[in-house]
Amino acid sequence: MFVLFLVVFIDLVGFGIVIPLLPFFGEHYNASPDVVTLLMATYSITQLISAPILGRLSDRYGRRPILLFSLVGSVLTYIWLGFADTLIMLFIARAFNGFMAGNIATAFAYIADVTTPENRAKGMGMIGAAFGLGFIMGPAIGGILAGPDAANADFQTPALCAAALSFCALILAFFKLKESLSPEIRAKIAAQPPRKHWKSFFETLLRPRLGLLIILSFLCTFVFAGMETTFAMWTRRVFSWGPEQNGYLFAFLGIVSAIIQGGLVARFAKMWGEGKMIIIGTLALGIGIGLIPFSTSVPFLMMATTILAFGFALSTPAINSLISLEAGETERGAVMGASRSASTLARVIGPILAGVLFAQLGRDAPYFFGMAVMFGVCIVAYIKLNQVRAQKPTSPLESKT
């Protein structure tokens, strides 16, 4: 599991390098705020398409080959991004990069393979910590390499650095990452009749317990992604920040996330259980994002984003843990792929809607809207979540085996 942690961490450093740059990259080509957020959403659109496909393929052929394939693709697409010289080329590069990023469903399935139900939340927290640590180093590196001046930022060097880091992750995975899915389970999967990827997605969504959890995951990511994709444009207008300053702020959020998911999630899971973690996390996420428009100083902004990061870091591994516990051993890749598809759909709709709100109603509108959504989610989770318990999987696949 530690090797997978390193692979995800290194890959996410590469991903994090690009995050604070893209809004400025888009505006460099005279894109409006709603077009900039569409650029961010393009990555998620193609990730949405690939996540269930890669997840199901990993069930049949193993986690390792799918992870290796996607890492090769990431290297090539980051190079492409570095040499993009038009807005259209930038969109295409991000689209291919997003398709390869569907591998995160496979990484979650890998964790589910190698952990027991009792320590599943801890395992999901480790992957979350790899995300957090990646966002500590990645945005800071990207911001430093691009420079503080948004008008004269260096976009090529950070992209090539991301390609180099993805290549390092590929080498590490090739030599050190072992297959987590046993031949016996793969044989069971191979013996089952093939299912269409999107049919599998909707079947998963219609299962009552899984459906509720996936909707919660969707809404949390929907709100966070809307913040993430408009934040650099907001800080540019309020504080006159460029890529470097935004990179440091995202790195700070990564530190908070890593502390929560890497060191505290397991303790919180034992103290409260996943259900209470989700309720507390969604409440904190709503409070944090609602405080951003009132941030007239950097210390206040850091307080608001700390609360926001705490909420997202607490709720995400808890939701993923409960989802994985609802899946049988022969369908974990497909179920986690379906869950990831819902999250990436949120990363499509969230940025697009946030961009429209930003452009039409003002820079603060996405954050007030996100606050309202999260308070609603918290209430629904409080009312409904006690009905959701990890029971024996009831999927059609499990009943036939």
The total count of strands amounts to 0
Query: What are the low-pLDDT stretches, counting only 5+ consecutive residues below 50?
Result: 387-401
- Biggest beta-sheet profile: none
Counted by DSSP, the helix tally is 17
Summed over residues and divided by their number, the pLDDT gives a mean of 82
Class derived from helix and strand content = mainly alpha
- Regarding CATH, which class? Mainly Alpha
Whole-number tally of structural domains: 1
Which bin fits the share of residues in helices?
over 70%
CATH superfamily: MFS general substrate transporter like domains
Q: How far apart are the termini? A: 28 Å
Q: Radius of gyration over alpha carbons?
A: 20 Å
Name given to the CATH architecture: Up-down Bundle
% residues in beta strands:
under 5%
Give helix and strand order, one letter per element, not per position: HHHHHHHHHHHHHHHHH
Question: Can you walk me through this structure?
Answer:
This protein has 17 helices and no strands. It has 401 residues and is mainly alpha-helical. It has a single domain (2-174, 197-396), classed as MFS general substrate transporter like domains (Growth Hormone, Chain: A). Helix 6 (104-114) packs across helix 15 (332-361) and helix 11 runs parallel beside helix 15 (332-361).
Task: Considering the chains and any ligands shown, give keywords for the structure.
Growth Hormone, Chain: A; mainly alpha; globular; 82% helix; 17 helices; 401 residues
